Amino acid sequence: MSPKTVGVIGGLGSRATVAFLNSVLEHTPIKSNRDHLHMIVDCNPKVPDINAAILGTGPIAAAALAASGRRLEIAGANFIVMVCNAAHVYEGELRQAVSVPFISMVEETMRTIRSDFPQCRRVGLLATDGCFRSNLYQDRLASRDLIPIVQTAKELERLMLALGRINTGDLGHAIRSEILGLIAALIARGAESIILGCSEIALVEPYSDSGIPLIDPGLVLAKATVRSALS
């Protein structure tokens, strides 16, 4: 049986989309280039700002995301993924807009926490203001009897400033130190693992010296994409 064709809603950020595609390539078992997956990518950075849309300070983004999903389905995608944590606030609208399956980055992250880190009950969250204030991850963690450890208002402000710099290509030592400081603050409040709840966070050099498991939803989604395409 031939692998399924993957539809990717991207551009939400563009750098994170490229990183996701590379991660899919890295986790696809191949013997030659022809074994790689067929991926159709709608990388559209003109979608209304997701965080502003969620917070009510910008245009609604649901229609643009639904249109992207429909384009991918028409182009031949057998299932769809979306490379943005916060945009999963609109997961329901996207599922209604297409007839092919949608694989949720957020739900796959929840499964990974349960399967790979069952000992971790206090789960930290680094996330954008829209993702954070929508309780996208917090509600799902609580429904699984896990305790969300969240950012303070000041830490959220620091993260948003850092993400703005990452989006313009600043991936240097100062940004890494800032993210590590935010991770350390969550650990100090009892986090036993941490969700890196914005795709851009993982673009910086890996934070392997943090001391606890760091869960990258983009990597989780890439692995789930390969499994789904080959199943």
Number of helical runs?
Answer: 10
Low-pLDDT segments, ≥5 res: none
CATH top level class name of the largest domain? Alpha Beta
Order of helices and strands: EHEHHEHHEHHEHHEEH
How would a crystallographer describe the biggest sheet?
4 strands, parallel
The helix-and-strand class reads alpha/beta
As a percent range, the share of helical residues equals 40-55%
Distance between the termini: 9 Å
* Strand order in the largest sheet: 5-4-6-7
Number of domains: 2
Using the alpha-carbon principal axes, give the shape. globular
Mean pLDDT, rounded to whole units?
A: 95
The proportion of strand residues reads 5-15%
How does this structure look, described?
It is built from ten helices and seven strands. The protein is α/β, with parallel strands linked by helices and 231 residues long. The chain has two domains: 6-104 and 219-230, Rossmann fold; 106-216, Rossmann fold (3-Layer(aba) Sandwich). Strand 1, helix 1 and strand 2 (39-43) form a beta-alpha-beta unit. Helix 5 (105-116) packs across helix 10. The longest helix has 16 residues, at 173-188. 42% of the residues are buried. The model has no long low-confidence stretch (mean pLDDT 95). Belongs to the aspartate/glutamate racemases family. Pfam families: Asp_Glu_race. It comes from Mesorhizobium delmotii. Keywords: Isomerase.
Task: Give the gist of this structure.
One of its GO terms (molecular function) is amino-acid racemase activity. This protein has helices at residues 14-26, 50-55, 62-75, 91-97, 105-116, 129-133, 136-143, 153-167, 173-188, 217-230, and strands at 6-10, 39-43, 79-82, 122-127, 147-149, 193-197, 214-215.
